[in-house]
Predict the 3D structure of the following.
Amino acid sequence: MKIKYPEALKPNNCIGVTAPSSGVESSLHILVEEAKLQVEKNGFKVLIGETVLTQHKGRSASIEKRVAELMDFLQNDCINAIIPPWGGNFAMEILPFIDWNKLKEMNPKWILGYSDISTLNFAYTTITGHASAHGVNFTELSAPEWDELSSKWIDVLSSNENEEITQYSSEKYQSCWGKVFSNPATGFYFDSQTEWKTLYNEDEVIFSGRLIGGCVNTLQVLVGTPFDNVNNFVNQYCHEEGVIWYLETADMDSAKIYRALWQMQQNNWFSNIKGVLFGRAGGYKDMGDFTLTDALKNVFKVFNIPIILNADVGHVPPQNILVNGSYATVKYSKGKGSISMKYI
């Protein structure tokens, strides 16, 4: 079977903002307002959903309202892409109430986001075979000037089927969110030199396969549920090319990461794996002398595949925009890397 890609984003198209997980509390509405202005300055229309500016008990709205608005946006021909404000904790609640059969029959539409939005995007792609995008959330577009990697969301969502787009590793990354929280809507504060690494210290590696992945914290919740369609997805869409898993974490220590990845491995998620892109781990700490390296080796050593660490993925910005389902080639050489995606 063939991955279906959404229609390429065009100037004057409409970006729909809905909150399938957490909404934005009133003190941070400036992030939504400024992001709307910046996206409009870049030539797009923006429609802010009712769920975005409300928040109660860790959720933007009731399950019913979140599902209704999401399905409405997905079916609305006047909305060309969906970018949630940010992640949260409870996106998994909406999955049982989404009409997946209807989505399979509809034309695909871009959904872009990360953190708990991984829960939605991962299920959306693995269940329907429709591509989705892992990258900046809407509130992160509130910066008066977008960094090079974040700004790539337009290029990625504007590419047509059969086209190829290449992204590169960043020069610097942001090691702490403190300045961002103190100075909302001013952008990221890059203070540390980026250096991709390999788990086994190779000078150069190259590998190809179809991209799939997201935030380990939230993907772990899906293992073994009715929304775990990984094995079918791999068999149907990745049989020939194999899979590149991109993974990232937030506030997980080495033991928690190991347990989560072990659970995925035991459920055969990593069949036909060709390589791993592991993002900079946000809020990470070792568990005694058990390190992240130990965790990754314990899980992936049986596969004999290249594994890249400190990639530009996830909660430690900036990050590359990765398309679930796309055919990608990852190249690494002495601390730097590139990701070329083909929409085939």
Observations:
- The mean pLDDT is 97.
